[in-house]
Amino acid sequence: MSIETRHKILWTPWRMSYVSKVGEKRECIFCEAVKNPDQYYVVKETEYSIAMLNAYPYNTGHVMIAPKKHTPDLEFLSDNELIDLMKLTKIILRALKLEYAPHGFNIGVNIGKAAGAGLEDHIHIHIVPRWIGDTNFLPIISNTKTIPEDLNTTRKRISEAIKKLEGSL
Fold this sequence. Notes:
Layout: H1 3-6, H2 16-19, H3 29-35, E1 42-45, E2 49-53, E3 63-67, H4 79-100, E4 104-108, E5 125-130, H5 137-142, H6 151-165
Antiparallel strand pairs: 1-2, 2-3, 3-5, 4-5
Helix pairs in contact: 4-6
């Protein structure tokens, strides 16, 4: 094995549970998360919405917020569901600011496969905290992104930040 080949290997044993299920017919991850919050890194649940960590994050603190209703588009949500979804988005933003102090955020909703929706049957909002300098040489030279914190720690930190904020929301 050459040195060049060794540098292209990235050890990610935690992904085996995902890779081994590719092709299996599964329920929607957001619908599963409503039923099994501990298994899906849920950080907050409201009457109509759920906030959970992205299991394959772009950055530490990458949260997805989804309505509990299984629907592919915002237009199929009631006003109460939309308001709840946005209020939960606001709570998550405040918690991320309190706990991680990011310099900014990428916030987005992808509707439909053509728009980049990986889970096109259940609408959801991505919140990705960003820091100046959070992109380093690894993505550029080896197409590899590093995530410096494990998901259990991230879940605990965000959940605790939400609890601290609950009195002021």
